[in-house]
Each structure stands twice: as C-alpha cells, then as structure tokens.
Write a structure and sequence with these properties.
The relative contact order is 0.18. The chain is an alpha+beta fold. The longest helix is centred in the last third of the chain and has 32 residues. Helix content is about 30%, strand content about 25%. It has ten helices and 21 strands. A hairpin with a 2-residue loop joins β11 and β12. α1 runs parallel beside α8. The structure holds flavin-adenine dinucleotide (FAD). The site of flavin-adenine dinucleotide has 34 residues, from α1, β3, β15 and α8. Flavin-adenine dinucleotide (FAD) binds next to α1, β3, β15 and α8.
Amino acid sequence: MNRKPRVALIGGGLGGLTAALAFSRVGIEAHVFEQASELREIGAGIGVSANAVKVLRALGVEKALRERGFESEASVGRDLTSGRSLFQVPLNDASGPRFGAPHVNIHRADLLDVLAQALPGPQIHLDSRCVVVSSCDHGAAATFSNGRQEEADLVVGCDGIRSFIRTTLHGPDAPRFTGNMCWRAMIPVERLPPGHVAPHVTVWTGLGGHVVTYYVRDGRLINVVAVQETSDWVEESWTIAGSREDLLAAYVDMHRDLRTLLDQVEHCFKWGLFDRDPLRTWSAQRVTLLGDAAHPMLPTLGQGAAMAIEDAYVLARALSCSPEDITAALRAYEAARVPRTTQVQLASRRQAKIFHQNSRGSTDLNADWIYEFDPTREPIALRPVSENPGIRMMH
Ligand SMILES: Cc1cc2nc3c(=O)[nH]c(=O)nc-3n(C[C@H](O)[C@H](O)[C@H](O)COP(=O)(O)OP(=O)(O)OC[C@H]3O[C@@H](n4cnc5c(N)ncnc54)[C@H](O)[C@@H]3O)c2cc1C
C-alpha cells in the first residue's frame, strides 16, 4: 500500500471519538459511524484518571478538559456507617499532580463535546448502525442500516459492551451480570450546605455496597454513583428510572453526611452492572476491537473509559508505525493492550469485593499502578506476522 490507510470506527462513544482524534493526529483518515441520530452520552459524570489525561494531553485537549471538568484533590475512603476515614490517595501534592497529570471529573456530555470539537473535519456519520462487517487479508467492509457501504483498510469495533463487531469476530456470548446494580444521580451544589462535599472523589464503603461522589461542571454539580449487590437484575439499560426512596432504603444505616447529600436527589436512574471475561485476542484479519467492545469492566476502579482512551492512542500509534503492514500493527496493538486491560478488568472485579467487605476486612484502594502508567510512552513492538498467526473471522 503506497497510501495512508483508511479506518472505519464503528461507534461514536468516548472510545470511538478518542480514536478518531488520535488517528487524525498521526495523519490517518478515520471516520466514525454512530447508530444514534446525535452524539450523546448519559447524564452522568466520569472520572478521567491521570493515565487517561496523559493521552488527552498528547492529543491536545487537556486544557479544554480541565476547563470543563473539576480537579479532585484526593480519593478518600470513608466508612458508610460511621464516617470513619479508611484511606486517602492524594491525587495532587505541593509539586503538582502526583501521577504526572491531574485526575479530572467531568460530565460525560462535556467530555464527548471536548473530543468532537477537536476533530479537524466532518468525520462523524450519524444514523449509521453497522449491520454487516466482513474482512479479508487486504481490507474490510462495513454495511449500515441506511444502506451505506464503506470499504476501509481497518474496521474498529468501538460499539460498547453489546458490541455487534465483537459478536461477529468471536461469536455470541452474553455480558455477565456481576451481581451489582447502581443508582446514578446529579445534585446541584446550591442545594447543600456550603462546603458540605469535600473536593475529593469520596468512596463510602459499606457491607454489600458503596457510594462514590465527586464534583463535575467546574464544581457546580455533584455526581453520585451508588452501587449495591443484588441477585435479581435482568436488564442492562439506562432508561429505568429509580426513586430516591429506593436509594435511601438501600443504605439505611448511612452516615448523616451522606444522608444529607442523598436527601437532595431528585431524579435517579437504575443500572445493572455487567462485564465480560477477558479475551486473549481481539483482532481477526482487518477488524479489531477497542474500549468496552473489547474489555467491559466493573466501574469500581473508574477505568472503563480510561482504558478505551489508552487503546485509542496505542492503536493509532501502532498503525502510524506500520501503515504498510496492518496485521503487524494489530499484533503490536494487542501485545501492548491485552495484558494491561486484562489486569484492570480483573482488578475491577476484586475491588468490588474489597469495597463491599467493609468492617469484615481492610478496605483500600490500590490504583497507583494504574494512574502512574503513561500510555504515550509505551513501546510499539512490531514483529513479523509469521511469528504470530491471527484468528480468522467467523461468518
Ligand atoms: C456506573 C458507571 C460508572 C463509570 N465510571 C467511570 C469512570 O469514572 N471512569 C472511567 O474511565 N470509566 C467509567 N465507566 C466506564 C465507561 O462508562 C465505559 O467504559 C465507556 O463509556 C466505554 O466507552 P466506549 O466508547 O467503549 O463504549 P460506549 O460508550 O458504550 O459507546 C459505544 C457507542 O457505539 C454505538 N453503537 C453500538 N452499536 C453500534 C452499531 N452496530 N453501529 C454503530 N454504532 C453502534 C453506541 O450507540 C455508542 O454510542 C463507568 C461505567 C459505569 C456503568
């Protein structure tokens, strides 16, 4: 191939948009195909930890991210009942961000907007649900529900936990219900006594559940994620409305500081938490996966989107290092990403158990190894294809 490769990204979530930006920064043409009629994210917050901020810095959007978000000073664990302090992980110290970049909490819609605004051209195609994907050794093609067909040198499934591309590559396997559900809510800060919520990511840990709170929108809103173990959940959907009464009833013995906060919840949604077992390989011929499509995980370490952002950067770099040999680029991408995302997926499961044991054992957050990592410095290890034959697509 004597020209730059062309990439089709299926899915316009945080992973797909970061990938579009990363490809544009290395001069590779990438188009995003999103099934929805507008780019949208659920009305909730997201923590962008230092490892992911390092990528957004390299992509030139750190300033916009920090202007729209809120920089939390520390991650602080508190006992849900007594309020006792359990752990404190400083995210900044006197010399600046402790992990080489700040931890930024932001409204998801704001992050999506930051990424979309940074794209250089009209690369996003809405109302484009991918219904067929095919591949051979020299190229790939995607067909959309609107009849459009696209040929590309590489198709990337960035289509989330219920990924159609993943099913095409690896066959059907349902996401696994993790035995946890959560409520999510946003509370305007003026509803609370001044200074009631510390400028931290606070993790209230109790028996069988935990509640995470942090500021977004430059400190004007407080985001609440309340996780509870449960055996009876069937749906994974954002559309199920929850009630404040249900939420308060789930944490009857909560500390008064947390109750004062949760008393102010007006609207909340219920959400089942699903993940999947790690895959050993993601790609087949000219099709690969990225983000939740490749490695959906529990949100206990706040790393799902961070891993998608890391994937996006590494994939774009791998392809820019090996534009003539896309198979070698995909091998390098997987070699860099599968071990790390597998570790984080499994650590996220363990962290749920640690948070929910509360007084039965020590409750701690060990995430330094995740935050310290700098994906922009990862070596891209290109190897001849003959050393590592890939799997072929299922049809
Ligand atoms: C309660 C909770 C809290 C969380 N907190 C954090 C946090 O603090 N920090 C963090 O890093 N992560 C967090 N996460 C995880 C994070 O939300 C996800 O990992 C991240 O959104 C995944 O991004 P994605 O782009 O891979 O997938 P998605 O955001 O699911 O995007 C997939 C996109 O693909 C589109 N699509 C699907 N199928 C098709 C198709 N066939 N054709 C075209 N388009 C299609 C969808 O419409 C969607 O826009 C949390 C998750 C939960 C549930």
